[in-house]
Design brief:
This protein is of the alpha/beta class. It folds into 2 domains: 203 residues, 3-Layer(aba) Sandwich (Rossmann fold), CATH 3.40.50.1100; 90 residues, Rossmann fold, CATH 3.40.50.1100. It has a 7-stranded mixed sheet with strand order 1-2-11-10-7-8-9, with helices on both faces. Helix 5 links the parallel strand 4 and strand 5.
């Protein structure tokens, strides 16, 4: 387990438990089902976050973060930067509250996600990748009003995401390890914050795709690294770099990062559809891919995927 001394600015267990009450009625308490693959290195389960109203866990963090705003602030609307899923979470909650929502999206964002955001009432502004990433860093966009809801670098968002860990431990209390897809790190660090408090012996891994794995490079170097990011069908995760503060959280909370090749992710996608009739996006299948290859171990290991969560059983520890 990584050292805990440097752990700062992450949600407490009390905040995560409070978030669970806040999001109750907006987010669904999703089930676990077993992945129908008997010859895998581990016994894998799916936590079906695809059953959320927007088809993604992002509704959890978005709902909790927006709930922390006062009425005067809410009246000015909300703003976020997202390739699709967080934008849908923010737009969903904004629609429920009757407030405006603007989304800064990269030009490479899938049209299906853009359409979904607009269907929920969000106004989409598509920009080049660099300007999109700049919006993350500056937490604003020129000419747009509204409170910025950060997709990952926000303890309130992470607290909402951390409610997933509470459900995992209720359904599989003896889980030994967890694999979470790494986009910006808010899902990984939210889940890890709860697991470190409730089951500190649990090992926690990030999962990245080979065409965009800045966390793996940064963990190896000990400092944020910039990589040659290559866009692919795995659009929900992957970037050119890691926020320094997210790297510090990862160093304190997780045990490492596992990388999947695109071909392995494609195989996982097909397997999910064929064996369980689960339709996942590329980012969602990335942890499944590393688990199927045995990279996460062979006993009770949990794999979380973005359109659902995967849990593999791993008894091996190191």
């Amino acid at each position: 387990m990584p050292p805990q001394g440097s752990l700062t600015n992450v949600p407490s267990l009390a905040q995560i438990r409070n978030a669970r009450e806040v999001i109750r009625g907006s987010a669904v308490r999703t089930p676990l089902v077993r992945l129908n693959v008997r010859d895998a290195p581990a016994e894998i389960y799916l936590k079906l976050e695809s059953l959320q109203p927007i088809g993604s866990f992002k509704i959890r963090g978005a709902t909790n973060a927006i709930a922390c705003l006062d009425k005067v602030t809410l009246a000015r609307g909300v703003l976020t930067a997202s390739a699709g899923n967080m934008a849908q979470g923010v737009a969903w909650r904004a629609r429920e509250l009757g407030i405006g929502c603007t989304v800064i999206a990269p030009e490479s964002a899938p049209e299906t996600k853009i359409t979904a955001i607009e269907r929920l009432g969000g106004k989409v502004i598509k920009v080049p990748f660099d300007k999109w990433w700049q919006a993350f860093e500056e937490r604003a966009f020129p000419g747009v009003e509204g409170t910025f809801i950060h997709a990952f670098d926000d303890p309130d968002v992470m607290a909402g995401n951390g409610t997933i860990a509470l459900e995992i431990l209720e359904d599989l209390p003896d889980v030994d390890a967890v694999v979470v897809p790494w986009g910006g790190g808010g899902l990984t660090c939210g889940i890890a914050s709860a697991l470190r408090a409730l089951r500190p012996q649990c090992r926690i891994f990030a999962a990245e795709v080979a065409t965009g794995a800045p966390l793996t490079a940064s963990l190896a170097a000990g400092t944020p690294q910039t990589i040659d990011y290559q866009p692919s069908f795995v659009d929900g995760i992957g970037a050119r770099s890691v926020f320094p503060q997210m790297l510090r959280r990862a160093q304190a909370l997780i045990d490492g990062s596992l990388v999947a090749e695109l071909q392995a992710v494609e195989h996982a996608l097909r397997l999910l559809a064929e064996r369980n009739r689960v339709i996942a996006e590329g980012a969602g299948a990335c942890p499944v891919a590393v688990a199927l290859e045995g990279k996460a171990g062979t006993g009770k290991v949990v794999c979380m995927y973005r359109a659902g969560i995967l849990i593999s059983q791993n008894s091996a520890r190191s």
